[in-house]
Amino acid sequence: xxxxxxxxxxxxxxxxxxxxxxxxxxxxxxxxxxxxxxxxxxxxxxxxxxxxxxxxxxxxxxxxxxxxxxxxxxxxxxxxxxxxxxxxxxxxxxxxxxxxxxxxxxxxxxxxxxxxxxxxxxxxxxxxxxxxxxxxxxxxxxxxxxxxxxxxxxxxxxxxxxxxxxxxxxxxxxxxxxxxxxxxxxxxxxxxxxxxxxxxxxxxxxxxxxxxxxxxxxxxxxxxxxxxxxxxxxxxxxxxxxxxxxxxxxxxxxxxxxxxxxxxxxxxxxxxxxxxxxxxxxxxxxxxxxxxxxxxxxxxxxxxxxxxxxxxxxxxxxxxxxxxxxxxxxxxxxxxxxxxxxxxxxxxxxxxxxxxxxxxxxxxxxxxxxxxxxxxxxxxxxxxxxxxxxxxxxxxxxxxxxxxxxxxxxxxxxxxxxxxxxxxxxxxxxxxxxxxxxxxxxxxxxxxxxxxxxxxxxxxxxxxxxxxxxxxxxxxxxxxxxx
Amino acid sequence: xxxxxxxxxxxxxxxxxxxxxxxxxxxxxxxxxxxxxxxxxxxxxxxxxxxxxxxxxxxxxxxxxxxxxxxxxxxxxxxxxxxxxxxxxxxxxxxxxxxxxxxxxxxxxxxxxxxxxxxxxxxxxxxxxxxxxxxxxxxxxxxxxxxxxxxxxxxxxxxxxxxxxxxxxxxxxxxxxxxxxxxxxxxxxxxxxxxxxxxxxxxxxxxxxxxxxxxxxxxxxxxxxxxxxxxxxxxxxxxxxxxxxxxxxxxxxxxxxxxxxxxxxxxxxxxxxxxxxxxxxxxxxxxxxxxxxxxxxxxxxxxxxxxxxxxxxxxxxxxxxxxxxxxxxxxxxxxxxxxxxxxxxxxxxxxxxxxxxxxxxxxxxxxxxxxxxxxxxxxxxxxxxxxxxxxxxxxxxxxxx
Lengths: 483, 401
Prior knowledge:
Helices cover 26% and strands 34% of the residues of chain A. Chain A is of the alpha/beta class and 483 residues long. Chain A is globular, with a radius of gyration of 21 Å.
């Protein structure tokens, strides 16, 4: 109940997007547009080795052939993106900071406003934070402590220099540069992101976390994250995002690759709360993300949890390739769309190994004039004996101007496999609402409570720090949708 | 992405010339067209089909199923054969045939409209007790033939009719049947439709049904798919008035390299309507079963209750199942649900029967029949339920030998 009350209070406090401000920090920009020169510029800026540049150029040349291949199958409507009108590199002026003290005070101020006090978080929550401000990782904390244990947790640009053998081996091994339009673009122009390697047998003692924040106007964000969990290891990774208010649409095309070897487990949690645009749908982030995990080893496990409340357009399908025998893939999702937001999100579970199991729990909430689509694929390969899938997709509609859609694909090639899919669409029942209001709750509080209950199964899978924030977000996101 | 289209099909100028009609300039959907991703039509373009000409037989071939007491309407290669049909259908139902007009919708409908000889038109004005059995026979000559049967059914307000459609062919022939059936269910009218597609194993069958159900109308359909090289039964139902009620069900049983596709669209445009769909299938050999069903609930269609289930059972290692149950909902005060499952025969159930002295084959047969019984139970017409169940049993027996 305490959390619910808090949610209700937050709802009351916040009349408009809380995180809408632009921090005035000078950026070191590349000129607008995209060309081989820009890619060479990005690569040179990062002082990258030759092989990295080659990889980028290979991707870029391939991307040029994809002009007609921009995905149109998703249930999303947005004006054609002019890829030459965006900046592909922007970084805060001061780089290479030795400690937090050197971080631009303005930047720290930004985090404070966001409610993410970096220092406090280190001390109180025990979270190592690799903060990405625009495109360059500015501060990496707890690095030493983790280093002693053999954990590599660094910006990917740093890993390219320090651990080229790992980056070479795994980069693009789950999401190849030719995967899809946005992933190809990312492979060509990615600026930074996180690199995580957990050594054999280690249970990473703390949650690893990165806060992304888009700051520079007109800057496409192209994060690249690569997480490798070696045999028998475990890691929980948190990703959370907020963005300042602005009018132009911003493109974000991230790629996240996870690799779990024998008996390893990766838990990847996201709370996505980028600027969703105003009530009329103006502005807001375009979020085209390719996230995929490979359960390479036997008995490995990858678990995706996402709470998607922001962005004007969400195009995102965190997936699992279950290669190792008895590997497990799980996907828990809450997607909330309000006003003019559009979300087309879901997952793919590709069962290749024997005895592989997957579970999909998706909760879509649509309010205002928003459209919310679950799109998922469960594929059982011919060799995936005794594979098992369970899928549950529930949609909740709030108001009569929104839409909720469910598009599952189930492709089975193995007789011994079992797949199950269930989906429902309904609205908040008048009885439930009446029950709450009769006991003195305001309508908005009641809706927030009921929706939190609807999402409980998913929110429960989040780490503690995130669960609280997520519950608040659920309430905030639906603000103004009833009454 | 641009959808791919198959333009190198055999239904162009040469085909039209033989018929002496203007050529169809359309294209068939290619593998990248979303609605056809599970059912590639490439194989269809590899056969040089010619227009099916009237094959003269005075009595019906022996493999044609008969229903005792039913009035019979026979189409041979898409053309209505009065001499093989029941002429007097009694009060309340009138049968005529005429030229096809509309070219609405998909490329297959357009193909049908271009080359259908004429439409069989059934006009129902009262409650009709007698079953109307429509038999569409594909009969090739020396060359693989294509036929384009067209059936139009109109049930006026308050009318009632039960239709049975059998799609069969002469054994051992390659042909392509492209039937289009349009059904209009008037206000408060009831139409029951039981379709059996049991084509020859080398035959192609791509059927489209367009159904409109007016306010207070009831449409009940059951589609059985038992054979054919490449079969698709696409059923598009539009609920065009309040309190309409649709039950659309089906079953398929496949072996060999048969491919069967059920594609449905349930379009709820008005409030207070209900629809339910139960589809079940068993797949053996190296067959391929497909179910893709879309429920569309428009903004105004409040208080809609729409449900959809597809379950498929593997009988061997080798077949494939693809399933895509889709919900597209724009109204908030609705109850919509779908479910889908695939699996194999439950070993515990098999053990239960085996431990009671039932041999393996019989036990499996019982379990398969039991699995399909859920769908068969949706056939409200008792006689038809028995007939279709017998068809499935026959399929099972043939499979076992």
